[in-house]
Amino acid sequence: MRIVLVGPPGAGKGTQAAFLAGNLSIPHISTGDLFRANISQGTELGKQAKAYMDAGNLVPDEVTIGMAKDRMEQPDAEHGFLLDGFPRNVAQAKALDTMLEAADMKLDAVLDLEVPEDEVVKRIAGRRICRNDSAHVFHVTYSPPKQAGVCDVCGGELYQRDDDSEETVRTRLEVYHTQTEPIIDHYRAQGLVVTISALGKVNEVTDRAMAALRGEHAA
C-alpha cells in the first residue's frame, strides 16, 4: 500500500506511522528522517537543505520533493510506503501526484488522524522533559512524575520546552490549518481520504487505522 499520513501536531503521527508501517511491511518515510539522512550523507540535496537551514530559512519545496522522490525510488519502497510529513502543502501534494503518475503508481489512501484542538494543546503543553536526560519525558496529566517537577528516573528538574508552550502550540496549529490541512481537500476530491479519531490508547488508534485502511483498500 502507498499511504500518506496527515494530522495536526500532537496527533501521534510518528508513533502511528511506525506501527502501521510495521503491520503493513512497508517503509516509514518521514520528512525529518529524509533531512537527517541527506545532510549526514552529504548529498547534493542535503547540502542545499543545510544551507537554507543554517541561514534560518525554510527549505524550498523543490528540495524536499527531490529528497522524497529519491527515497521512494529505493528498492524497499517498490511495493509501498507510508509518507509522514510529506506532502506538507498543496504544491507538494501536486508534485507527488505527478511523480506517482510518471511512475505508473497511485496512492491507496490518505489517512487523516483527527484530534480536537483543545486535546492537541493539552497533549503537547502538558509535556515535561528532564534537564539531565531528554529521553525522560513525563506529562502532567497522562504520565505525571511521582513528585511534581522532579524526574522519577534520575531526580533531575523537569521543564517545559519553549516549543511546547500553549502559545507556540496554537501557532503551530494555525500553520497546520493554513498550509497542511488543505491537502486533505485535495485528496478528498480524489476519493482517497480516510478519517479516523486519534483519541484513545495507541493500540486502539492503530487498530482503528488498520480497519479503516482495509476498508479503503477493499474499496
UniProtKB/TrEMBL annotation:
<comment type="pathway">
    <text>Purine metabolism; AMP biosynthesis via salvage pathway; AMP from ADP: step 1/1.</text>
</comment>
<comment type="function">
    <text>Catalyzes the reversible transfer of the terminal phosphate group between ATP and AMP. Plays an important role in cellular energy homeostasis and in adenine nucleotide metabolism.</text>
</comment>
<comment type="subunit">
    <text>Monomer.</text>
</comment>
<feature type="binding site">
    <location>
        <begin position="57"/>
        <end position="59"/>
    </location>
    <ligand>
        <name>AMP</name>
    </ligand>
</feature>
<feature type="region of interest" description="NMP">
    <location>
        <begin position="30"/>
        <end position="59"/>
    </location>
</feature>
<feature type="binding site">
    <location>
        <begin position="10"/>
        <end position="15"/>
    </location>
    <ligand>
        <name>ATP</name>
    </ligand>
</feature>
<feature type="binding site">
    <location>
        <position position="161"/>
    </location>
    <ligand>
        <name>AMP</name>
    </ligand>
</feature>
<feature type="binding site">
    <location>
        <position position="172"/>
    </location>
    <ligand>
        <name>AMP</name>
    </ligand>
</feature>
<feature type="binding site">
    <location>
        <position position="200"/>
    </location>
    <ligand>
        <name>ATP</name>
    </ligand>
</feature>
<keyword id="KW-0545">Nucleotide biosynthesis</keyword>
<dbReference type="GO" id="GO:0005524">
    <property type="term" value="F:ATP binding"/>
</dbReference>
<feature type="binding site">
    <location>
        <position position="92"/>
    </location>
    <ligand>
        <name>AMP</name>
    </ligand>
</feature>
<dbReference type="InterPro" id="IPR033690">
    <property type="entry name" value="Adenylat_kinase_CS"/>
</dbReference>
<feature type="domain" description="Adenylate kinase active site lid">
    <location>
        <begin position="127"/>
        <end position="163"/>
    </location>
</feature>
<dbReference type="GO" id="GO:0044209">
    <property type="term" value="P:AMP salvage"/>
</dbReference>
<feature type="binding site">
    <location>
        <position position="31"/>
    </location>
    <ligand>
        <name>AMP</name>
    </ligand>
</feature>
<dbReference type="InterPro" id="IPR007862">
    <property type="entry name" value="Adenylate_kinase_lid-dom"/>
</dbReference>
<dbReference type="Pfam" id="PF00406">
    <property type="entry name" value="ADK"/>
</dbReference>
<keyword id="KW-0418">Kinase</keyword>
<dbReference type="InterPro" id="IPR027417">
    <property type="entry name" value="P-loop_NTPase"/>
</dbReference>
<dbReference type="GO" id="GO:0004017">
    <property type="term" value="F:AMP kinase activity"/>
</dbReference>
<feature type="binding site">
    <location>
        <position position="127"/>
    </location>
    <ligand>
        <name>ATP</name>
    </ligand>
</feature>
<feature type="binding site">
    <location>
        <position position="36"/>
    </location>
    <ligand>
        <name>AMP</name>
    </ligand>
</feature>
<keyword id="KW-0808">Transferase</keyword>
<keyword id="KW-0067">ATP-binding</keyword>
<protein>
    <recommendedName>
        <fullName>Adenylate kinase</fullName>
        <ecNumber>2.7.4.3</ecNumber>
    </recommendedName>
</protein>
<dbReference type="Pfam" id="PF05191">
    <property type="entry name" value="ADK_lid"/>
</dbReference>
<keyword id="KW-0963">Cytoplasm</keyword>
<feature type="binding site">
    <location>
        <begin position="137"/>
        <end position="138"/>
    </location>
    <ligand>
        <name>ATP</name>
    </ligand>
</feature>
<keyword id="KW-0547">Nucleotide-binding</keyword>
<comment type="similarity">
    <text>Belongs to the adenylate kinase family.</text>
</comment>
<dbReference type="GO" id="GO:0005737">
    <property type="term" value="C:cytoplasm"/>
</dbReference>
<feature type="binding site">
    <location>
        <begin position="85"/>
        <end position="88"/>
    </location>
    <ligand>
        <name>AMP</name>
    </ligand>
</feature>
<dbReference type="InterPro" id="IPR006259">
    <property type="entry name" value="Adenyl_kin_sub"/>
</dbReference>
<dbReference type="InterPro" id="IPR000850">
    <property type="entry name" value="Adenylat/UMP-CMP_kin"/>
</dbReference>
